[in-house]
Protein backbone atom coordinates (compact mmCIF):
# COMPACT_ATOMS: atom_id res chain seq x y z
CA UNK A 1 0.00 0.00 0.00
CA UNK A 2 1.29 3.46 -0.82
CA UNK A 3 1.58 6.09 1.85
CA UNK A 4 -1.29 8.62 1.71
CA UNK A 5 1.15 11.52 1.26
CA UNK A 6 2.60 9.97 -1.93
CA UNK A 7 -0.87 9.33 -3.37
CA UNK A 8 -1.96 12.90 -2.59
CA UNK A 9 1.22 14.33 -4.16
CA UNK A 10 0.72 12.22 -7.31
CA UNK A 11 -2.91 13.30 -7.65
CA UNK A 12 -1.96 16.96 -7.13
CA UNK A 13 0.74 16.74 -9.82
CA UNK A 14 -1.70 15.03 -12.22
CA UNK A 15 -4.36 17.70 -11.60
CA UNK A 16 -1.79 20.44 -12.23
CA UNK A 17 -0.74 18.83 -15.52
CA UNK A 18 -4.36 18.50 -16.70
CA UNK A 19 -5.06 22.12 -15.74
CA UNK A 20 -1.98 23.31 -17.65
CA UNK A 21 -3.02 21.38 -20.75
CA UNK A 22 -6.56 22.73 -20.57
CA UNK A 23 -5.28 26.29 -20.17
CA UNK A 24 -3.09 25.89 -23.25
CA UNK A 25 -6.24 25.53 -25.37
CA UNK A 26 -6.66 23.63 -28.64
CA UNK A 27 -3.81 23.41 -31.12
CA UNK A 28 -4.04 26.01 -33.87
CA UNK A 29 -2.57 26.02 -37.34
CA UNK A 30 0.39 28.29 -37.83
CA UNK A 31 1.69 30.01 -40.92
CA UNK A 32 4.25 27.23 -41.34
CA UNK A 33 1.69 24.40 -41.32
CA UNK A 34 0.85 23.00 -44.75
CA UNK A 35 -2.67 23.79 -45.97
CA UNK A 36 -5.35 21.18 -45.39
CA UNK A 37 -5.89 19.05 -48.49
CA UNK A 38 -8.72 20.35 -50.63
CA UNK A 39 -10.86 17.95 -52.57
CA UNK A 40 -13.76 15.57 -52.35
CA UNK A 41 -13.20 12.09 -50.97
CA UNK A 42 -15.37 9.68 -52.95
CA UNK A 43 -16.23 6.15 -51.83
CA UNK A 44 -18.05 3.24 -53.43
CA UNK A 45 -19.08 0.22 -51.37
CA UNK A 46 -20.93 -3.00 -52.05
CA UNK A 47 -23.88 -4.50 -50.26
CA UNK A 48 -23.48 -4.25 -46.46
CA UNK A 49 -19.96 -2.88 -46.87
CA UNK A 50 -18.71 -6.18 -48.35
CA UNK A 51 -16.09 -4.22 -50.31
CA UNK A 52 -15.09 -0.59 -50.54
CA UNK A 53 -12.87 1.65 -52.59
CA UNK A 54 -12.17 5.35 -52.40
CA UNK A 55 -10.48 8.16 -54.25
CA UNK A 56 -9.70 11.80 -53.57
CA UNK A 57 -10.90 14.03 -56.42
CA UNK A 58 -9.14 17.37 -56.64
CA UNK A 59 -10.37 20.01 -59.08
CA UNK A 60 -8.52 23.15 -57.98
CA UNK A 61 -6.89 24.92 -59.64
CA UNK A 62 -7.43 22.20 -62.26
CA UNK A 63 -8.19 18.49 -62.18
CA UNK A 64 -5.33 16.45 -60.72
CA UNK A 65 -4.60 13.46 -58.54
CA UNK A 66 -5.05 9.71 -58.88
CA UNK A 67 -8.69 9.66 -60.02
CA UNK A 68 -8.51 7.96 -63.44
CA UNK A 69 -11.09 10.34 -64.95
CA UNK A 70 -10.34 13.48 -62.91
CA UNK A 71 -10.92 15.96 -65.76
CA UNK A 72 -14.25 14.44 -66.75
CA UNK A 73 -15.38 14.08 -63.11
CA UNK A 74 -14.48 17.70 -62.31
CA UNK A 75 -16.27 18.82 -65.48
CA UNK A 76 -19.39 16.91 -64.43
CA UNK A 77 -19.28 18.50 -60.96
CA UNK A 78 -18.77 21.94 -62.55
CA UNK A 79 -21.87 21.49 -64.72
CA UNK A 80 -23.82 20.38 -61.61
CA UNK A 81 -22.42 23.32 -59.56
CA UNK A 82 -21.10 20.82 -57.00
CA UNK A 83 -24.55 19.30 -56.42
CA UNK A 84 -24.21 15.54 -56.85
CA UNK A 85 -28.00 15.18 -57.08
CA UNK A 86 -27.85 17.37 -60.21
CA UNK A 87 -25.32 15.25 -62.13
CA UNK A 88 -26.51 14.60 -65.68
CA UNK A 89 -27.40 10.92 -66.07
CA UNK A 90 -26.16 8.88 -69.03
CA UNK A 91 -28.72 7.08 -71.16
CA UNK A 92 -27.67 3.53 -70.41
CA UNK A 93 -29.60 0.27 -70.32
CA UNK A 94 -29.13 -1.52 -66.99
CA UNK A 95 -30.36 -4.88 -65.78
CA UNK A 96 -32.87 -5.21 -62.97
CA UNK A 97 -30.43 -7.26 -60.86
CA UNK A 98 -30.46 -6.02 -57.28
CA UNK A 99 -26.88 -5.74 -56.00
CA UNK A 100 -26.89 -2.45 -54.06
CA UNK A 101 -23.98 -0.06 -54.29
CA UNK A 102 -23.59 2.90 -51.93
CA UNK A 103 -21.58 5.95 -52.91
CA UNK A 104 -20.57 8.91 -50.80
CA UNK A 105 -18.78 12.20 -51.25
CA UNK A 106 -17.37 14.43 -48.53
CA UNK A 107 -14.96 17.31 -48.57
CA UNK A 108 -14.53 20.67 -50.25
CA UNK A 109 -15.38 21.39 -53.87
CA UNK A 110 -14.46 24.87 -55.13
CA UNK A 111 -14.75 26.25 -51.58
CA UNK A 112 -18.13 24.59 -50.92
CA UNK A 113 -18.50 21.86 -48.27
CA UNK A 114 -20.02 18.67 -49.65
CA UNK A 115 -21.48 15.74 -47.73
CA UNK A 116 -23.55 13.36 -49.84
CA UNK A 117 -24.51 9.67 -49.88
CA UNK A 118 -26.81 7.58 -52.04
CA UNK A 119 -27.54 3.89 -52.61
CA UNK A 120 -28.21 2.59 -56.12
CA UNK A 121 -29.78 -0.73 -57.12
CA UNK A 122 -26.56 -1.88 -58.82
CA UNK A 123 -23.25 -0.64 -60.21
CA UNK A 124 -24.72 -0.01 -63.67
CA UNK A 125 -27.40 2.37 -62.37
CA UNK A 126 -24.78 4.07 -60.18
CA UNK A 127 -22.48 4.69 -63.16
CA UNK A 128 -25.36 5.81 -65.36
CA UNK A 129 -26.51 8.28 -62.69
CA UNK A 130 -23.14 9.66 -61.64
CA UNK A 131 -21.09 9.45 -64.84
CA UNK A 132 -17.33 9.77 -64.42
CA UNK A 133 -17.46 10.96 -60.81
CA UNK A 134 -17.51 7.47 -59.28
CA UNK A 135 -15.68 5.61 -62.09
CA UNK A 136 -12.48 4.65 -60.31
Automatic annotation (TrEMBL):
Residue span of the signal peptide, if any? Answer: 1-22
Q: Which residues form the Subtilisin inhibitor domain?
A: 40-122
Question: What do we know about how this protein assembles, alone or with others?
Answer: Homodimer.
Organism equals Streptomyces sp. NBC_00119
Q: Name one GO cellular component term.
A: extracellular region
Q: Keywords in UniProt for this one? A: Disulfide bond, Protease inhibitor, Secreted, Serine protease inhibitor, Signal
Report the main location listed first in the record: secreted
State its location(s).
Secreted
Would you identify the family this protein belongs to, as annotated? Belongs to the protease inhibitor I16 (SSI) family.
Protein name, UniProt field: Subtilase-type protease inhibitor
GO terms, molecular function: serine-type endopeptidase inhibitor activity
